[in-house]
Every structure is written in C-alpha cells, then in structure tokens.
Design goal:
Blueprint lengths: L1 H18 L3 H22 L4 E2 L7 E9 L3 E8 L6 E6 L2 H17 L3 E7 L11 E8 L12
Parallel strand pairs: 1-4
Antiparallel strand pairs: 2-3, 2-5, 3-4, 5-6
Helix pairs in contact: 1-2
C-alpha cells in the first residue's frame, strides 16, 4: 500500500511542478518532491520510522531499549507483512510494560503483541491524540474443529 501512496503523491506533485501557472506552486511542489525523496531514502537505509501518526498493531518480533532516546520495536503487521522497525518515544512506564509483557509472553509460550490506545476527546484539529503503546501476550490460537473418525 505504501508504494502506491508514494507513486500517487509523486505524480500529483510532479504534475503541479510542471504544469502549475503560479511559480510559487511549482517551487513548493519541487521542494515537496525533494523532501519526499529524502524521506524515502532515509527509510530505505533501515532507520526506524517515527511513531508520530500512531502506534502500529501487530506481533513484536524484537525490541531494543535505547534509554535516553527511544524504544525501538520491530513489528510484524496483523496481515502478516514484512516487519517494520518503529521508534517509539522514550517513556519509563512503556519500557517497564514492554519488559513485563515480554516476560509474561515467554512464560506463556505465546508471541508478544502490541497495539495503540487513544485518549478520549479530540484536539483542536479534529485528530484524536495517541496515548501510547500497549504490550501484551498474544491470545492463544484457536484449536482446530474436532471431526468424528
């Protein structure tokens, strides 16, 4: 899905850069294309994605606690796609919850899962604030349906 979004945004910005009547619009579209190119280059190098627009939901493959800066979490999405590395802002409570949940998941023999929570209410711009990640042992898989021999 992400490549489709990048291609559509590049097509729209490229058309605006070439065919816009106002010179400020052409210059702005060009600057936007360069910024998008730098963002794609940065993520292609393997740097973690910032969790500015929300916390992903899925199975935690691995994690690292970079105490003063961030909590780096590699998450496999629920649909089974490629794991993505996310940099969550450092929070002592989130780090402790992650370690507790990882220990509980290991004890139960289940994978560690993660999801985001939302605070109640809306900001002045209409977006809900993200409260942070919730780590928990994934639920046990359902047993297969029994059949008669």
């Amino acid at each position: 899905m992400t490549p489709v979004i990048f291609v559509a945004a590049a097509g729209i910005a490229g058309a605006a850069a070439m065919f816009a009547a106002a010179s400020w619009l052409r210059a702005g579209a060009y600057v936007g294309l360069v910024a998008a190119l730098l963002a794609v280059w940065w993520t292609a190098l393997g740097h973690p994605r910032p969790a500015l627009f929300g916390v992903p939901k899925g199975t935690v493959v691995s994690y690292a606690l970079n105490e003063p800066q961030s909590i780096d979490v590699m998450v496999r999405p629920k649909n089974g796609g490629v794991p993505v590395l996310w940099a969550l802002p450092w929070n002592e409570a989130d780090a402790a919850a992650l370690q507790r949940a990882a220990q509980d998941a290991q004890t139960a023999g289940r994978p560690l899962a993660m999801r985001g929570t939302q605070r109640g209410g809306r900001s002045g711009y209409g977006y809900k604030h993200r409260a942070g990640p919730v780590f928990y042992p994934a639920p046990a898989p359902q047993l297969p349906v029994k059949t008669r021999p």
